[in-house]
Amino acid sequence: MANATQPIFNCDNVEIAAETKSIVKGVALTVRPFEIHALMGPNGSGKSTFANGLMGHPNLTVTGKIILNGESIEDMPPHERARRGLFLGFQYPVAVPGVTVASFLRASLNAIGRDISNVFEFRKELETVFGDLGIPWSFADRYLNDGFSGGEKKRLEILQMVMMKPKFVILDEIDSGLDVDALKVVAQGINTIAQQGAGVLMVTHYQRLLELVIPTRVHYFMDGKIAFEGGAETVKELEANGYDWLKQKVADAGIAGNSEVYL
User: Fold this and answer.
1) I want to staple 96 with a disulfide (CB 3.0 to 4.6 A). Which of 144, 146, 237, 247 is the partner?
2) How many CA atoms, within 13 angstroms, populate the side-chain half-sphere of residue 243?
């Protein structure tokens, strides 16, 4: 059982650049086990770059401290971060023709050190998770994301997350393009992994996900920084008033997005 008093993830003074362009500018964030944090902000504010940088995207230059379960991971390649328990759910999952969903999951679990030598137990677990997430079992033999709808791809991202049992989950707009049924399945998976002791960071634009997955804290990105922070109730204010409300809040504090405002 995870120790809820100790951070499962924290980062400090994280700066991220793509080529010569500075995008994320000195972000600090702490997430404890069982907590769900939402990251919101206008398009182009750096949310997805932050998510990809934490995972170690090779096309990004990242500086600062990134700590997972007490261990520094900022110098590790993405696959080592995954082995340590970091999971990134992609905004646009890619298709992998020639590799079935079941084969991919088996290889992924092997790569992070899970013992799946018992084929019967692995299949039983996989069938259970497929059923829980409302994914047809026939998808297990289809090529990964090949010919799948957007909603089906997002369900498979959640399926991978549930099977891999990560310590810290980053979901980059996992709710984009989902119908009501798929959104409920995605929310169920997020709530389940958090209840098992993982920390979760969700990048999202939409209140509808945050009505099903109640965040512990909401962080608002502006110009590559966390400019504003509050509880779940602030999402309704944002929905009602838009990002002009957020910009005015920051301007009223006299910080122009250069540090944090806490509600």
Assistant:
1) 144
2) 14
Q: Which tokens is 226 given?
A: 């966390």
Q: What is the DSSP letter of 110?
A: H
The span from the CA of 202 to the CA of 210, in Å, is 10
Cα separation, 46 vs 41, whole angstroms: 8
Q: Which two tokens stand for residue 1?
A: 């059982």
Find where tokens 């608002």 sit.
Answer: 220
Question: CA angle, corner 10, sides to 9 and 16, nearest 5?
Answer: 115
CA torsion angle for 206, 211, 213, 217 (degrees, to 10)?
70
Domain ranges of the chain: 9-92+165-252
Are 60 and 16 spatial neighbours (Cβ–Cβ below 8 Å)?
yes
Q: Please determine, for residue 163, whether its predicted confidence score (pLDDT) is greater than 70.
A: yes
Asked: is 9-92+165-252 a CATH 3.40.50.300 domain? The reply is: yes
3-state helix, strand, coil in the chain (%, to 5): 40, 25, 35
What letter represents residue 104's amino acid? F
- pTM for this model (two decimals): 0.90
Judge contact between 56 and 62, C-beta under 8 A: yes
Beta carbons within 8 Å of 119's beta carbon, 6+ residues apart: none
Instruction: State the Cα–Cα distance between residues 168 and 70, nearest whole angstrom.
Output: 12
Extract the tokens encoding 96.
């992998």
Residue 74: closest CA among 57, 54, 51: 54
Around 20, how many Cα atoms within 13 Å sit in the side-chain half-sphere? 0
Specify the 3-state DSSP secondary structure of 120. Answer: helix
pLDDT digits (tens, 9 = 90+) for 114-146: 888 888 999 999 999 999 888 899 999 999 999
